[in-house]
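Example record

One chain of 227 residues, shown exactly as stored in the release files.
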Amino acid sequence: MSSAKGEILIIEDEVAIADIVVDYLKRDGFGAEHRVDGSEVQTLVATGRFALILLDVMLPGLDGFELCRALRKTSAIPIIMMTARVEEIDRLIGLELGADDYICKPFSPREVVARVKAVLRRHAPNEPQQQESTHPLEIDQDSFIVRLYGKKIDLTPSEYKLFSALGAKPGRVWSRAQLLDVFSGEKDVFDRTIDSHVKNIRKKISQFFPELDLIQSVYGIGYRLEI
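Predicted structure tokens for this chain:
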């Protein structure tokens, strides 16, 4: 029986971890199905039953990276990687292969559920045009104006470029190297320049919304915008 919130496919060889995640997903109204390896994943995804995959990196046989690459050849199903690997390069590989998000072990099962909800929101069908006008974040590419909940945020041209990139794909994790590409051709732009711009944007937002954590730091990688 399908769940109102959607069916989640969990590929995880540590049964104890998977059981906890399944339990928390079901408590929140999701359906959940667990497999210990990736041998059946493509067949299961082809059924169209599943809304999202929670995919462990360290799997027996075909590992999570290889499985993600194979899935992306035939499916756009949202994928969240679960990994005990903490090196930046490992996390970047997953994102570059087409994963929508990652979460590092050990993790809170509540965080897993929250990440699942966030990714599913990003993949939900577009709202009708009448509702789009009430979106909390407006980025006007013609006038270079940013409005947040109706408040105009005065940004410098460089801050606007950075914020516009983050705002174009809310929830996407951007590495500093990827954000540097926004300033392609400009001189004296380094990793710390990105950090400085983010700090200034946060300060300007906090003047109107002091408790809003709009631009989130992603440890060891870079930033994402959640709205």
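Notes: The CA atoms of residues 28 and 141 lie 38 Å apart.
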